[in-house]
Amino acid sequence: MNDMTQSPVRFGQGESLVGMLTTPAGQGAAAVGCLMLNMGANHRIGPRRINVKLAREMAGRGISCIRLDLAGLGDSGPASGSEHFLTQAVLDLQAAMNLIQTMLGVRRFIVIGLCFGAINGLSLAVADPRVVGFLMFDGYAFPGRRAQLERQIRRALAAPTNPAVIGKTARWLQRKFSAKAAAAAAPHIFESDPPEVTAAVFRRSMTQVAERNVAVLLFYTGTMHVVDRGRDQLGPFATEAFTQRFEYRFIGDIDHSLTSMESQRVFMEVVCDWALRVVQGTAVASSPHAAPAARANGQFASSRQAVALQRDPVI
To answer: Does the predicted model carry a pTM greater than 0.70?
Structure first.
């Protein structure tokens, strides 16, 4: 590819953090850079190498990107201190912004957080005014009782033909009725916050982001949520004043892990369209009743009780 260049970089305290900087070739780079975070504990390349593909596509459109491993993940070394993991993530991401600011003169950033990366991205958006755009992909979700019940019914109906559902059901039954299997189950790395705490953090953080006029895209897929009617994934927050200032997209035909090439194509189209509008200063909040993405001739048309962060494993 001759429309971009890639450079491995080390940065942070003791140069213990590792990333890949992708920049447009030649002149004309945008004044806004992009940070691509780890998806959970996965390597910086993302599921199906989507961060690599997205960084190259965005660089071809003039946006410099860095995909990085947070401390203790991928190729980066462990943190040298004893900070809380969210605090450490913010410090790592700020070190990446400092690096790009020094190397490229970029002082404004958009952050793309996939799954658990949405938590780290939101923490950074609250903490650092250099963040002017934040994309949350299948992150925080608060579907109500009706949405949860419909999802459970649809998943149950899919069980006879869906190998993933069959496997998950079999493992759940083993843990439920076998003491040996239950004891062998891997423990959670982190203790989950109660739903009401998660909801309070979400409300407080998103309100602060909205007050700073950060452009936000809440992007959800069909794998976890199946269907969506009127911003279902925001549940009690769907009509809050702060969420009316954010864009919201639900595309049921793509999946959380972006397994198919079509899912990847649609994902990159949506993300690049949003990122360019942030760079141009034209990203605006959409109507809460906006129609979902259209699909014509098999192709997506370009457009412009709480449950905590989804925790399904990524293949």
So the answer is: yes
Per residue in 266-311, pLDDT (tens digit) is 999 999 999 999 999 887 544 333 334 333 333 333 333 333 333 3
For 270, the 3-state DSSP assignment is helix
166 in any annotated domain: no
**Mean residue pLDDT across the chain:** 84
Q: Residues 6 or more apart from 204 whose CB is under 8 A from it?
A: none
243 in a domain, yes or no? yes
**pLDDT digits 0-9 by tens, 70-103:** 999 999 999 988 889 999 999 999 999 999 999 9
**Residue 139, in any domain of the structure:** yes
| Residue 154 C-beta-side C-alpha neighbours within 13 Å | 13
What's the domain count of the chain?
1
What CATH number is given to the structural domain containing 24?
3.40.50.1820
Q: Which domain holds residue 53?
A: 4-145+194-300
Sign of the alpha-carbon dihedral angle for 88, 90, 94, 97: positive
Domain presence at residue 11: yes
Which residues does residue 296 pair with via DSSP β-bridges, in sequence order?
299
The residue written with tokens 């957080």 in the block is: 113
Catalogue the E-assigned strands of the chain: 4-11, 17-24, 32-36, 65-69, 108-114, 131-137, 215-221, 247-251, 295-296, 299-300
Contact 22, 5 (CB under 8 A): yes
**Segment 199-208, tens digit of pLDDT:** 999 999 999 9
Q: Which of 100, 92, 95 is nearest to 117 (CA)?
A: 92
